[in-house]
Write a structure and sequence with these properties.
6-stranded antiparallel beta barrel; about 20% helix; 3 domains; Pdz3 Domain; Thrombin, subunit H
């Protein structure tokens, strides 16, 4: 065990040491260059040496200060599987997996406890909310968070979102220091960044380990991973090109940690997908702190579901010949009737070249740009059709997120049922679950409590409500507005051929 932790420690510190040698070498080269150019006087050497060393010292002090500002907002996370006599089946390679044989250990709240499965987290609210990566969570598990003051708390999952790969844990703590968020969207190649986390559980006492490097690239794609809930192998938005790539060493356990700039601001949340995929890589990755990130975090902090825009097309990349001819964009192969794409007037073989003025170069780019937009937002689509450019406008639906979502503050129910946008009824191949050829406008029934008034009226999951009484509705917001003031029996018209009407009585139980 000691050898493994020694190896992990060596790996964690080797890259920074190598870089300091490079800085020292650069300073030495500067001095030698001065000598070679004729600066042979001892006074000139004496004058040049302090300036070279001072330059290195400035960088060193900037890093020390940045780490000091950010590290008090870092936390170590231990995942402990509940002992129920069964080992849960993992749906993908476990990023927590450790190569140390498990031994008899103290309780998770004991300072001597060494977890077999571990990750990092970042304080995002003084009242005990810890942000981490959703892929480090798993079934039948308890979580323990060690904060920077070395206190250990049992945590609950406040909310988790597989599409953003973000999750928020809640602990019974007050007075924590939330990390300062920077602008990850403004990062450029070559900028210096610092990674803070819990590699190989070395920082399990709440004192994060640091590694540093540069931004190697931006808008990188996470490697595909097998996920039964998503046959495309791209279950997150980051598979379509959001990630920051850095050469800072990110080992197993740093997922959920912070990537900070020289001001100590978090510009990315470390996800380390190579470790999640089961292999090591010289590159590390982080989710950028941008508008999409901030929106998702705010929803998760409230325990709510994160929603993403949805167009309703199946896009393909253009042919090599088209790209050689200078045409870029995503070709529309198929459109689902009743979706925002169909309402906007898109047709098969249209080429979408921009969304809200942002150029689209490939199919993944279209999925990414639409997914970044909120539900019910407007997307201006630049479309190439028959060699002519035109603009179409679509009001986006809701992306049908697959995978395990955890929500502690769900949308309100009405008489024992919950409704959502009809687009959530589409499966991974953009087909309605009911087998219909398209979607109807209205509000989709996504949950019905057995024995409730809605259940007794015959409402079931997958039905679409098009009218409340004589009022046509388009989405859950309009549905709740229509029923808000109604008392007694309420008539609902359901989509179908022919349409049917059900009457929902008062529900004596809580909604």
């Amino acid at each position: 065990m000691f050898r493994m932790f020694s190896k992990g420690l060596a790996m964690a510190v080797s890259a920074p040491i190598a870089r300091w040698f490079l800085l020292a070498a650069a300073a030495l080269v500067g001095l030698l260059a001065g000598l070679h150019s004729g600066a042979c006087c001892a006074a000139d050497v004496a004058a040049g040496e302090p300036s070279a060393l001072a330059a290195v010292a400035v960088i060193e002090q900037a890093m020390v200060s940045a780490i000091a500002r950010a590290e008090k907002s870092l936390a170590a996370i231990a995942r402990v599987r509940r002992d129920d006599g069964r080992r849960p089946v993992e749906t993908r390679p476990d990023p927590f997996a450790r190569r140390i044989s498990p031994l008899a250990q103290p309780q998770p709240t004991d300072p001597d406890f060494v977890p077999n499965e571990y990750a990092s987290g970042v304080v995002v609210d003084a009242a005990g909310l810890i942000l981490t990566a959703a892929h480090v969570l798993g079934p039948d598990s308890d979580y323990y968070v060690t904060t920077n003051d070395r206190k250990v708390y049992k945590a609950i999952i406040k909310a988790a979102d597989p599409r953003s790969d973000l999750a928020v844990l809640a602990i019974e703590a007050r007075g924590l220091t939330p990390i300062t968020l920077g602008d990850g969207a403004a990062l450029r190649k070559g900028q210096i960044v610092i990674a803070l986390g819990n590699p190989y559980a070395i920082a399990r006492d709440g004192q994060p380990s640091a590694a540093w490097g540069i931004v190697s690239n931006v808008h990188r794609k996470a490697p595909p991973w097998p996920d039964p809930a998503d046959p495309t192998g791209k279950p997150t938005l980051h598979h379509f090109g959001t990630l920051i790539q850095t050469d800072a060493r990110l080992n197993v356990g740093t997922s959920g940690g912070a990537l900070v700039n020289l001001r100590g601001e978090m510009v990315g949340l470390i996800v380390a997908p190579p470790a999640a995929a089961g292999y090591e890589s010289a590159a590390g990755y982080a989710i950028p702190v941008d508008g999409t990130f901030r929106r998702a975090v705010e929803q998760l902090k409230q325990g709510r579901e994160v929603e993403y825009g949805f167009l309703g097309v199946q896009p393909l990349n253009l042919s090599a010949q088209q790209r050689l001819e200078g045409v870029f964009g995503a070709r529309v192969e198929r459109i689902v009737q009743g979706t925002p794409a169909a309402r906007a007037g898109l047709r098969p073989d249209d080429v979408i070249t921009a969304v809200n003025g942002k150029p689209i170069y490939e199919a993944d780019g279209l999925v990414l740009e639409v997914g970044r937009l909120p539900v019910q937002s407007t997307a201006r689509l630049a479309v190439l059709r028959g060699g002519k450019q035109r603009e179409l406008t679509a009001t986006l639906g809701k992306y049908p997120v697959r995978g395990v979502r955890i929500v502690t503050a769900p949308a309100p129910a009405w008489r024992g049922m919950r409704v959502d946008y009809p687009t959530v009824l589409l499966d991974g191949q953009l087909r309605p679950h009911s087998g219909a050829s398209g979607l109807e406008e209205g509000a989709a029934v996504v949950e019905v409590v057995p024995g409730s008034a809605a259940w007794n009226a015959g409402l079931r999951t997958g039905m679409v409500i098009t009218h409340v009484g004589r009022t046509a509705i388009d989405g859950p917001t309009q549905f709740h507005q229509a029923v808000a003031a109604l008392r007694g029996p309420v008539q609902l018209r359901l989509a179908g051929t022919p349409p049917t009407t059900v009457t929902v009585g008062e529900d004596e139980s809580k909604p």
